[in-house]
Specification:
Elements: H1 3-30, H2 37-44, H3 48-54, H4 66-75, H5 86-102, H6 112-121, H7 127-147, H8 154-174, H9 178-193
Helix pairs in contact: 1-2, 4-5, 4-7, 5-8, 5-9, 7-8, 8-9
Length: 198
C-alpha cells in the first residue's frame, strides 16, 4: 500500500467514525425518526453527500459495527484445530459475535434499543438493513465453507449458522430490559445449536 492510499484510508476511517459518533449522539438524544441526515452531517462536520459515501441511509448507521464484527468472527476459524468439525466452526463464529455484543468497548449494544424500536415501528427491517444483514450472514457462510470445504456438509452448516443468527436477532428484539439482552441471546443461540452438535 502506498503512503498516499494509507492516508486516504485513514481519513476515510476518521470520517466514518465521526459520522457514527454524531449519529449515535443524535439518535440517543432525539431518536432515529427525529434525526435527519443533514443533522448527522452537520454534527460530523461533513457535507451531506459525504455521508452517502459511507452509509446508504441514516438507519444503516445503527449497524455500523457489523462488517468489523463479521471479519473478526471469520478470523476465529483460523484458531480451530485441524480436525475440527463444521459445527465447531459455527460455534466459534457465534462465540466471537456474542462476546463482541457484550463488550462495552465494541459499542454494539449502545444502540440496540433503537434498532429494536426501528424494526418494530417499520414492521420489519428496512431494505438496506436487510441487505446488510444478509451480506453479513453470507460472508460468514463463505468463511465457513472455505474452512470446511466438503460440499456435502454445506447445507447443514448453512442451516446451523442461519438458526444461530436468527435466534440471536429474535432474542435481541424480544428482550426489553437491556441488562437481560446478552444472556437471552446466548441462551437462544445455545438452544438453536443444540440439534446441530450431535
Amino acid at each position: 500500500m502506498s503512503e498516499q492510499s494509507g492516508i486516504r484510508d485513514r481519513r476515510r476511517a476518521e470520517t466514518r467514525s465521526a459520522i457514527v459518533r454524531a449519529a449515535t449522539r443524535l439518535f440517543l438524544d432525539r431518536g432515529v425518526a427525529r434525526t435527519s441526515i443533514d443533522d448527522i452531517a452537520a454534527g460530523a462536520g461533513i457535507a451531506r453527500r459525504t455521508f452517502f459515501l459511507h452509509f446508504p441511509s441514516k438507519e444503516d448507521v445503527l449497524f455500523h459495527y457489523l462488517e468489523g464484527h463479521i471479519s473478526r468472527a471469520a478470523r476465529a476459524l483460523e484458531d480451530l484445530p485441524p480436525g475440527a468439525e463444521a459445527h465447531q466452526g459455527v460455534q466459534a463464529v457465534m462465540a466471537v459475535l456474542l462476546d463482541l455484543f457484550e463488550d462495552p468497548s465494541a459499542g454494539t449494544d449502545e444502540l440496540a434499543d433503537l434498532r429494536a424500536e426501528l424494526i418494530a415501528t417499520s414492521r420489519g427491517l428496512p431494505a438496506s438493513l436487510a441487505l446488510r444483514l444478509q451480506r453479513a450472514q453470507s460472508a460468514l457462510a463463505d468463511a465457513l465453507r472455505e474452512r470446511f470445504p466438503d460440499p456435502a456438509g454445506w447445507p447443514l452448516l448453512s442451516a446451523h449458522l442461519g438458526a444461530c443468527m436468527g435466534a440471536a436477532a429474535a432474542a435481541a428484539l424480544a428482550v426489553e430490559r437491556p441488562e437481560a439482552r446478552a444472556g437471552a441471546i446466548r441462551e437462544a443461540v445455545d438452544r438453536a445449536s443444540a440439534g446441530f452438535t450431535v
